[in-house]
Input
Amino acid sequence: MKIGILTTGQVDEDKRLVEAATQAGHEITLLKLMKCSMSVCPDEGQIFYDGEEISHSFDIIIPRLNVSYTSYGLAILRQFQALDVYVTDTAYSIELGRDKLRCLQYLMRKEIPFPTTGYADSKDDIENIFKTVGDVPLVIKLIEGTEGTGVFLVDDVKQAENLYATLNQFDAPVIVQKFIAESAGEDLRCFVVGDEIVATMKRESQDGDFRANVSLGGHSSSEELSEQEQKVVLGAAKAIGLNIAGVDLIRSNEGPLIIEINVSPDFCGEQGIEVVTGIDVAAAIIDYAVNGKKLYDQGKGIWLQDDKKAS
Ligand SMILES: Nc1ncnc2c1ncn2[C@@H]1O[C@H](COP(=O)(O)OP(=O)(O)O)[C@@H](O)[C@H]1O
Ligand SMILES: [Mg+2]
Output
């Protein structure tokens, strides 16, 4: 198979995918997103790489899009989809995954558990939704934040409302969320590929921070999920139609709760899921992509391209 990785340059992950694909006997090319361009016209669409046409040069496109390039990345990915090229994740699902609030709305429809969350615009409504969500301490987070930045724990209600209103005012939309105190500083990262959770690790903050993100110094270790937790994790990825996902889960007194679903999740690094669990995540992604392409060609996987899949 000819595989193209549409990448914004997660160097280590890209390298591992190249290794895994080459080992499995496939041809693989790294396509730097910013070197891609396209033309859209009624009779024929085209995609170019460094000026050269690549519209149908690949059997499979695997998107690896960094959050800061989402908009351009999605436009190029949509063009591949429009030209009927098989992609492992659709632009629609990636866009959903980038928006914490939209994501939760899809989870809600499928009755997947997550902490109660509020969203409002006007000052009066902010007071109201804070009451709905519960008592302080409360978590306030940027809808499009990542790596733990833009996630705040506030234990004074006036201060919380003030922070909420200020961030909103500066065009940084935020949600307010019930703080799950019993799981503070601890969460589970579950790496989903297709219908499987290929690896799971527990992350624990090392300095008393309530956020467990590895990017903030969290420590990871291999972990097993209960059957109920597995169901919740797989249901979450499916609810937004994301095939390759980093699903974050916390263990609350009332059972597992989804915190977020990450698009193009990292898997390298000292505290990364491959090193920590010893599982070849890159090989699992390549395997999934190759099988997915075969199903797609048989017409069985056609839904993979359907933007309405996450319904
Ligand atoms: N409602 C919550 N209750 C308890 N801990 C939370 C809650 N929301 C987030 N956290 C902690 O903060 C971390 C970062 O939050 P998250 O929503 O995943 O933002 P980011 O996208 O920046 O990683 C989580 O991994 C978790 O450890
Ligand atoms: Mg997170």
